[in-house]
Amino acid sequence: MRGVSVAPLEDRIADLSMPEPNSGCWLWLGVIKNNGYGTLGVKRGQKWMTQHAHRVSYEVAHGSIPAGADLDHKCRNRACVNPQHLEPVTRSVNLSRSPLMRLSMARKTQCPKGHPYSGINNRGQRICHHCLAEAQARSRRKTHV
After folding, report:
1. Within its chain, how far is the Cα of 7 from the centroid?
2. Neighbour count for residue 38 (Cβ, 10 Å)
C-alpha cells in the first residue's frame, strides 16, 4: 500500500459496512474470517496490520479499549461494527453472555473429576465443593510443611 492515499478510518468503515434497519447493526462487507469477525487493514505507525473491524470501529468512535477488556457484541452479531452495539467487558462477562456458553454450561452437571456441581461462586461460575475442599487442603498442607 506504499504511496497509496488511504481514506480516514471513519470513511473506510462507512464504505465497508451496511446499516441493517431492523437490528441497527452495521454489517461488515469487507473480509470476514471463519470465526465471523470482520477484518480491516490499519496503518499503525509505519506498519500495516490486520485488525478486527469491530475493534477499529469502537476505537474510532470511543477511543482506546480498556486494557484487558473484550468487546462484547450486545447484538450477538460478530459481523456488526456499530460502535453502539459494542461494550468493553471482562473476558468472564463476555463468555457468560454467550448463548453457546450458557447452553454448554446448562448441560454440565458434573465437574471434570465427576463430582456433582454443588453451587455457584460469587463470579457466577459453577463450583464443585469437593474439589474446592481438596484444593484448600493441599494449600494448607503446603503452608504448614
Report:
1. 28
2. 26
Query: What is the rounded distance in angstroms from the CA atom of residue 48 to the CA atom of residue 11?
Result: 18
How far is it, in rounded angstroms, from Cα 52 to Cα 77? 14
Given pLDDT bands bounded at 50, 70 and 90, which one contains residue 91? confident
Domain 1-99 listed as CATH 3.40.1440.60: no
pLDDT digits (tens, 9 = 90+) for 27-81: 999 999 999 999 999 988 889 999 999 999 999 999 999 999 999 999 999 999 9
In the chain, which segments carry CATH 3.90.75.20? 1-99
Tell me the one-letter amino acid at 111: C
Give me 48's grid cell. 500495516
User: Cell numbers of 102, please?
Assistant: 450458557
Residue 104 grid cell:
454448554
Distance CA 103, CA 118 (A): 18
